[in-house]
Amino acid sequence: MKTDVEHGDFDTVGLSGDGRKLVILDQTRLPGRAVFLELDGLEEIRQAIYLLKVRGAPAIGVAAAIGLYVRANRMLEEGAASEDAFVSALRAEAGVIGSARPTAVNLQWALDRMLARAERCRGLGAAGIAAALKDEALRIRDGDIAVCRKLGEHGLALLEPGQGILTHCNAGRLATVRYGTATAPIYLGHERGYGFKVYADETRPLLQGARLTAFELRQAGIDVTLICDNMAATVMKQGRIQAVITGCDRLAANGDAANKIGTLGVAILAHHYGIPFYVAVPTSSIDFTIPDGRAIRIEERPGGEIREMWYSEPMAPEGVRTYNPAFDVTDADLVSGIITEYGVLRPPYGPALERLHATLRARAEAGEGGHHV
Ligand code: MRU
User: Fold this and answer.
1) Residue 31: cis peptide before it, omega within 30 degrees of 0
2) Ligand 1 site, residue 102, Cβ cutoff 6 A
3) pLDDT digits over 40-51, tens only?
4) In terms of CB atoms within 10 Å, which end of the chain has fewer, N or C?
5) Which DSSP helix (H) or strand (E) runs through 96?
6) Helix axis angle, 42-50 relative to 57-78, nearest 10°?
7) Distance between CA 368 and CA 356 in Å, rounded?
């Protein structure tokens, strides 16, 4: 995989050259240091996802898939007893990796794809199954790159040169393998001289906007301005923003969209100021099994992230009660368009998503794509 962060030629997540380790760019060290971690322990893979060393819905899906393959390889080396025991052990390890974070659907989606492939390969023996898992994990990774690029083309068609674009959290190349989702139209527009002016919300409490979005856009030579979350209303009111684009961790069948905490507030502000609010969603982040956002499990994280992180001294009284939901759900009626790799969906989203689901099912039946249907 590519690891030249200084020159912008890197993959966020991949497989080591010898095929034995999951490699991730440790996002908790950015923007100060570019450190790649090589992982093959079950607990270290789970922790890397839980601690946001690798984060962003598509990236954690790819990390889980490659992580499970790496674990399969280790089991083989340690001498798997029988095919049944091998597949059971894989299921148990997938359960551990999948427990790391609950909101992004891609994590379970990628693991389900890996386990389904293992089931289809029964009869080939443990070594045959492991070889198939390597192929599946690399397909998931390569699929992510292709999907983000297509999504970028559809998103760019919604934008005009010179526009001000606000984004929240990091749905950039660091959240995927390359281009990003919300940033894919921005990168493509940059290649074509659109001259966008991007405003990045810093994104409290974990500062993905400040540490990651500002870092990657700046490194790409894109005009980016960092603002605190509570400045979004002001830049909108001042007429600096013509479109908002965010990512999504899980989109329900009615178009309700879970994304990083604070996204809902941005959507309400955009609605107030008549600014289009777009959600960029690869179909791997759509959960067709849930009718609306009320069924989305929202991850709650430790209060220390609010009280103590990032400053040399705690910035809140010791022991103060905190509430730290990591995501919120933007109601579908606040969303102007859902940008997918198949095109832009417009309201009413229920029927539009049903049609998309039918397309994905047909593709899956024809043996194309790897969508959950
Ligand atoms: O907690 P994080 O940093 O994993 O949250 C990430 C987001 O909310 C992103 O916007 C989302 O995963 C989409 S990434 C293309």
Assistant:
1) yes
2) no
3) 999 999 999 999
4) C
5) helix 83-98
6) 170
7) 15
Whole-number pLDDT of residue 79: 86
The helix-helix angle for 83-98 and 105-120 (nearest 10°) equals: 170
Interval between CA 248 and ligand 1 midpoint (Å): 7
Q: Show the tokens assigned to 349.
A: 């989203």
Write the single-letter amino acid at 188: L
User: Would you call 306 exposed, middle or buried from its count of C-beta atoms within 10 A (0-12, 13-18, 19+)?
Assistant: middle
Distance in angstroms (rounded) separating the CA atoms of residues 94 and 68: 7
Residue 56 in contact with ligand 1 by CB distance below 6 A: yes
What is the spatial distance between Cα 26 and Cα 142, in angstroms, rounded to a whole number?
20
Q: Which helix (H) or strand (E) holds 199?
A: strand 197-201
Q: What is the pLDDT of residues 283-298, one digit of tens each?
A: 999 999 999 999 999 9
End-to-end CA distance of the chain: 30
Question: Using an 8 Å Cβ cutoff, are 35 and 26 in contact?
Answer: yes
In the chain the domains, ranked by start, together with CATH numbers, are 3-149 (1.20.120.420), 154-365 (3.40.50.10470)
Does the Cβ of 181 fall within 6 Å of ligand 1? yes
Q: What values do phi and psi take at 146, rounded to 5?
A: -65, -40
Q: 243 and 236 in contact (C-beta within 8 Å)?
A: no
Q: Would the pTM count as exceeding 0.85? A: yes
Neighbours of 265 (CB within 10 A): 17
Q: Is 4 annotated in the active site? A: no
